[in-house]
């Protein structure tokens, strides 16, 4: 019986793969990967390694989560080293925990290999530090997948009132609702916000605006994209280094 390595692929730039992930990928018998994991990484696998695409991106699952869970279980019965490759970090909105629980319930061994999360690295490539002395003392990473007007929301928006930096993942399609909600809870209309598309890749693009006008400016950016809200956005002017 094999073992499943729930592995972070980093945010896009292949150079941001950890050494541990890289070495495990080179030994893998089979790699199960998402849309967000840079496919260039697969070229590092050994000859004869099998690849299974499960195509999950935001809400458009090409394979339902319970089927992915069971697929990993079945693959571990047949192969020694199963790599489950996920964009960013496997446990930051990556459902790696659910996969691990299913494996454990079926007596399959697993390991987590952390990855560099887009939540920090994508703003960083755009020249936006998530914390900065004198500007912020905290940052919050939130799912933007849940529409803010949803009944029985699990997100406590009122808590964001005094937040310094807020990073929303999976939020582009709710950008208008998210910004309205932030204004509703008392953030100034001209509060700085950035949307970063395809971060850490050659197609990276950042759009800067205010809570009031960002939606018009950024709604048509290609995904994946994340949203950064906070005074740190202003640092981009001086710290931008990657985007041409
Ligand atoms: N586990 C991943 C996040 C999965 S949720 C991580 O740790 O990075 C998927 C969301 O991550 C996307 O909707 C987008 O908001 C964000 N994301 C991932 N890669 C990105 C990239 N290269 N550029 C911008 N946003 C990205």
Topology diagram in text:
Layout: E1 3-8, H1 19-27, E2 30-33, E3 50-53, H2 65-78, E4 81-86, H3 96-105, E5 109-113, H4 118-125, E6 139-143, E7 165-169, H5 175-184, E8 192-197, E9 205-210, H6 214-218, E10 225-229, H7 236-239
Parallel strand pairs: 1-4, 1-5, 2-3, 2-4, 6-7
Antiparallel strand pairs: 7-10, 8-9, 8-10
Helix pairs in contact: 2-3
The structure holds S-adenosyl-L-homocysteine.
Description:
It is globular, with a radius of gyration of 19 Å. The chain starts with a strand and ends in a 5-residue tail after the last helix. A hairpin with a 7-residue loop joins strand 8 (192-197) and strand 9. It is built from seven helices and ten strands. The chain is of the alpha/beta class. The strands form two sheets. Strands 3-2-4-1-5 form a five-stranded parallel β-sheet, sandwiched between helices. The chain has a five-stranded mixed β-sheet with strand order 6-7-10-8-9. The protein has two domains: 3-113, Cobalt-precorrin-4 Transmethylase, domain 1; 118-239, Methyltransferase, Cobalt-precorrin-4 Transmethylase, Domain 2 (2-Layer Sandwich). S-adenosyl-L-homocysteine (SAH) binds at residues 11-12, 36, 58, 86-89, 92-94, 117-119, 122, 169-170, 196, 198-200, 224-226.
């Amino acid at each position: 019986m094999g073992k499943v390595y729930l592995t972070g692929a980093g945010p896009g730039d292949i150079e941001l793969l950890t050494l541990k992930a890289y070495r495990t990928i080179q030994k893998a018998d089979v790699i199960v990967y998402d849309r967000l994991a840079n496919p260039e990484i697969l070229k590092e696998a050994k000859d004869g390694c099998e690849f299974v695409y499960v195509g999950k991106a935001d809400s458009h699952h090409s394979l339902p989560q319970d089927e992915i869970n069971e697929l990993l279980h079945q693959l571990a019965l047949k192969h020694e080293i199963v790599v489950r490759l996920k964009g960013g970090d496997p446990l930051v909105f990556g459902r790696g925990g659910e996969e691990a629980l299913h494996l454990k319930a079926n007596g399959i061994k697993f390991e987590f290999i952390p990855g560099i999360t887009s939540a920090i690295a994508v703003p960083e490539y755009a020249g936006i530090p998530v914390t900065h002395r004198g500007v912020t003392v905290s940052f919050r990473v939130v799912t933007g997948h849940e529409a803010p007007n949803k009944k029985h929301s699990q997100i406590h928006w009122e808590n964001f009132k005094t937040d310094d930096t807020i990073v929303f993942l999976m939020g582009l399609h709710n950008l208008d609702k998210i910004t309205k909600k932030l204004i509703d809870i008392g953030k100034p209309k001209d509060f700085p916000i950035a949307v970063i598309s395809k971060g850490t890749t050659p197609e990276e693009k950042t759009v800067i605006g205010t809570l009031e006008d960002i939606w018009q400016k950024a709604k048509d950016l290609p995904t994946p994209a994340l949203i950064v809200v906070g005074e740190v956005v202003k640092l981009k002017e001086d710290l931008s280094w990657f985007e041409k």
